[in-house]
Design a protein that fits this description.
Length: 216
């Protein structure tokens, strides 16, 4: 399962979330949710490529109202995101904004994974010159057609399309599995030493050795 969260402000209040489901090494489903922040007028910090109108924003559910459907879509599977601290932080902030418990999930960072599979000193041998999801997509799976403009020209800068960015994270993991000869997310994380971390209703892991409690 892969996630990308676009945020409404620098506090990481979630705005637009893209989720991509992977089973048996294949992308099988994609879903996105627009959510709003309580008591705040619509104003974007990261502007998604898809235009979001004030009317759409005002009619959108709060994150905690949309979360049960997201949780059903995740179905307890581990989540990957590129720069996962940002994306999982947005999930926690969506709960903090209304004083609700944090969601329960496990997650890993596809950026950390990419750096371990294609380390900087050897990255250029594989054509990897950037660890951004856009840069990795351009090199590792250009055939996917991600991060392209309306003319099909590949973009080299982040454009804030959460579904495409979530798909890029999923494909980075699949490329890492192929490069390491692994058959699953669990195996490639273990082989590369990339941590699988946990969020619980009142605490989360920033690294495998420490828990950060929720401050009430």
């Amino acid at each position: 399962m892969a996630l990308d969260a676009q945020c409404a402000n620098r506090r990481l209040s979630p705005l637009y979330l893209g989720w991509v489901a992977v089973r048996n090494g294949r992308i099988v489903d994609r879903r996105s949710w627009l959510v709003r922040t309580p008591g705040r007028p619509y104003r974007t910090w990261e502007q998604p490529r898809e235009e979001i109108t004030r009317e759409r924003y005002d009619q959108a559910p709060l994150f905690v109202e949309a979360w049960p459907d997201m949780a059903d879509f995740i179905a307890g599977r581990p989540v990957v995101a590129h720069g996962a601290g940002h994306d999982v932080g947005a999930l926690r902030r969506g709960c903090d904004d209304v004083g609700a418990p944090w969601p329960s999930l496990t997650y890993a960072c596809s950026l950390q994974l990419a750096r371990r599979v294609w380390p900087a000193k050897h990255a250029t041998e594989h054509g990897v010159h950037s660890y951004t999801s856009v840069g990795l997509a351009y090199v590792l799976f250009p055939e996917a057609g991600l991060n392209c403009d309306e003319h099909g020209i590949q973009l080299l800068t982040h454009h804030a399309d959460p579904l495409e960015d979530a798909e890029a994270s999923a494909r980075i993991v699949l490329a890492a599995q192929h490069a390491t000869g692994c058959s699953s997310l669990t195996e490639v994380l273990t082989v590369t030493g990339t941590p699988l971390l946990t969020v619980e209703p009142d605490r989360y892991q920033r690294n495998p050795r420490s828990w950060i409690p929720r401050h009430r």
